[in-house]
Amino acid sequence: MVRLVYSVVLLSVLGFASQVVNGIFMDKLSEKKLCADEECVYTISLVKAEEDFNAPDCRFINIKKGEMIYVYSKLMKKMGSGEYWAGSVYNDQLGTVGYFPSNIVDEQQVFKEANKEMNTTDIDFFCE
Ligand SMILES: *[C@@H]1O[C@H](CO)[C@@H](O)[C@H](O)[C@H]1NC(C)=O
């Protein structure tokens, strides 16, 4: 029994470690973000995609026109760049979170106003 517990613990540790090793820290899209709370865990809003979006790299998510997306944070615009929001597609069982341009979506329902200005962290731009 004890040996079984050790194996399970070891497997989860190894699993986590390999995920980190396989991941990559990408350049930050912005230094600041707006969240609904200080942990950025509350869902800000539900939006609907008006256009398809093809993720240019692993920081982004693919979106098809008509899909509904939950928004968790809103990056603050850098000079000369677009505005990106972080979210996950409603029907994505894996709940993959990534960025998409805010100008291709239409906000349907706001759950909690994003009025907390936060610094982004390296983890916000980490992907596998
Ligand atoms: C954001 O980062 C700046 C500079 O590192 C720091 O002065 C500031 O306190 C940070 N703000 C928050 C909300 O953590």
From TrEMBL:
Q: What's a BP term from Gene Ontology annotated to this protein?
A: cartilage condensation
Q: Which domain of life is it from?
A: Eukaryota
Q: Specify the signal sequence span.
A: 1-23
Q: Which organism is it from?
A: Latimeria chalumnae
Question: What is the name listed in the Swiss-Prot or TrEMBL entry for this protein?
Answer: Otoraplin
Supply the alphabetized keyword list.
SH3 domain, Signal
SH3 domain location is: 42-110
Q: Name one Pfam family in it.
A: SH3_2
Give the InterPro entries listed for this entry: OTOR (IPR042801), SH3-like_dom_sf (IPR036028), SH3_domain (IPR001452)
